[in-house]
Design a protein that fits this description.
With 105 residues, chain A is α/β, with parallel strands linked by helices. Chain A has helices at residues 13-20, 30-39, 48-51, 70-89; strands at residues 3-7, 25-27, 54-59, 92-97, 100-103. Chain B is globular and about 45 Å long. The relative contact order of chain B is 0.23. The chains are: A alpha/beta (105), B alpha/beta (176).
Chain lengths: 105, 176
């Protein structure tokens, strides 16, 4: 089973992941892994197979003005695309706000 | 029928917008109105990506960056996809040929004019309001203006959606 939990920073995503899906190994903060992958020159989509069978949390970082720094824009773009790809494969997707989970898939 | 598809960066909104229009009207009846000006590498990449996404889906393309109220397609189309409202508004506000102070009204009028010209209008707009940052006064003005345009057209929409990680979430519209 694969689960994706998205939402703004500090909304209780990790807590929800651990309490609702204790049987799954958590990956907390996918946006950081995307940043690290880009820094190391790897394509973030290569992270996808390793996320299957896990409960993954990711900050929603795409809901602002396009960053002026191209590297920041790329990070935002790649995080969004990876979330789309993971959500397509996930059994459940939640969006969480103030600790309240809304199941969207 | 006006349909709005909002979403953050790389949230899959274009793909949903295309699909919704393709469901509503047959091939040969689909016009894509592109509002993004091809300036800079990032814009060109984005345009190329959108073109690839649309390929083979039976869209004709018209580029129109401002003054949609006076835009007349070469022939009538039953369905129009406008991509995207955030670019259109930026052009109206900041381009020399834009409406300047009257940008909000120009953008709203433009959308309403497109809606009158077809059966189904799908409008893509950006969720750019939720990163908590305080920008320069010019950018804050833009955020307020885009929010105003979104609100003016959202009340008229038959359906309003937000694309989240490629998942289409209904957030409003006449029928729920």
């Amino acid at each position: 089973m694969t689960v994706l939990i998205v939402g703004g920073a500090c909304q209780g995503k990790a807590h929800f992941a651990r309490t609702r899906y204790p049987e799954l190994q958590p990956v907390i903060g996918l946006q950081r892994l995307v940043r690290e992958a880009l820094k190391a020159g790897r394509t973030p989509q290569s992270l996808l197979p390793g996320l299957l069978g896990r409960v993954v949390t990711c900050d929603e970082i795409g809901c602002g003005i396009v960053p002026e720094d191209p590297a920041e824009e790329r990070w935002r773009e790649e995080t969004g695309r990876l979330c789309c790809a993971l959500a397509a494969k996930a059994d459940a997707v939640y969006r969480i706000w103030a600790g309240i989970p809304q199941r969207i898939k | 029928m006006l349909i709005i598809v909002a979403g953050g960066a790389a949230s899959g909104k274009s793909e949903h917008a295309e699909r919704l229009l393709c469901q509503a009207v047959p091939a040969g009846e689909r016009l894509y109105v592109a509002a993004m000006q091809p300036f800079g590498e990032a814009a060109q990449k984005r345009i190329a990506r959108h073109r690839a996404l649309r390929r083979g889906k039976g869209f004709e393309t018209a580029e129109r960056y401002t003054d949609l109220a006076h835009f007349v397609p070469e022939r009538p189309f039953r369905g129009i996809l406008l991509e995207c409202l955030s670019n259109l508004l930026a052009n109206e506000m900041f381009s020399p040929e834009g409406a300047g102070q009257a940008a909000v009204q120009a953008a709203v009028k433009g959308v309403l004019s497109l809606e009158e010209r077809c059966e189904t209008l799908v409008v893509v707009t950006n969720e750019v309001f939720s990163d908590g940052r305080i920008y320069s006064e010019q950018t804050m003005q833009y955020l307020r203006a885009l929010a105003a345009v979104n609100q003016e057209i959202a009340v008229r929409a038959g359906a309003v959606y937000e694309s989240v990680c490629g998942i289409l979430c209904r957030i409003g519209g006449e029928n729920g």
